[in-house]
Amino acid sequence: MGAMNEFKVLDPEGHSSTTWDPADAEEVERARRDYEALVRRGYRAFRLDQQAEGRTQERFDPEEKQTLLVPPIHGG
Amino acid sequence: MGGEGLAARLRGWLAGVARLSAQVAEHRARTRFSAQHHAAERARRLLVACLSTSQRSEFERTLGFRVRGASGRLYRIGYSATANIEVLDETGEVQHRLCAGPDRVPTAAVLLAQKLMLEAREAEFLRIAVRHPAVIAPFAARSLQHALHES
Fold first, then answer.
1. Cβ of B100 and A11 within 8 Å?
2. Cβ contacts of residue B102 below 8 Å, gap of 6+?
3. Do the beta carbons of residue B46 and residue B112 sit within 8 Å?
4. Nearest-neighbour CA in chain A from B110: distance (Å)
5. Does the ipTM surpass 0.90?
């Protein structure tokens, strides 16, 4: 098994994770489906740059080590 | 068995049911508290892991950290889920506050969502956020109590 990449989704439990091996096409496809389903529901995807600053991720990147998915935000 | 004996047995049975109900309620409360505590800690660990060195150091000292938006504007995110973003001017004075975040996530996850949105999607965040006055003392007091309770 190769190195695992993951996306973390902020949720009521703190966060949940989906991991995949970028060399495994089936795992990549499963992660892509889950990722895209969340984005369709209004989740926003981010990665952190080397200075730990948030950067927008426009589409699923199977090579990205860690992606963060944020639920839709509301003003209050 | 006489009527008094039956009444005594019934009272004993009812007392047993009441004790059992109290134990179940206590167990549920402990489980809920433990789950909330676990979620809060999990969210806090992820937040800390996603902060820059200077943000982490500031968070450890003050339970808040500063974030610079793509526009160059500086914000300070405090440990609360309500009107917890201070919009700062060049001198560091609070101009006003902002309130926006995801629902039904622990406070630390709200802070992480706000950091990411302000750093990477500032304009979108500002369109959604509700603006509050710079000083909202009663809110601040309640938020601090909430933060202390959750930690």
1. no
2. A10, A70, A71, A72, A73, A74, B109, B110, B113
3. yes
4. 9
5. yes
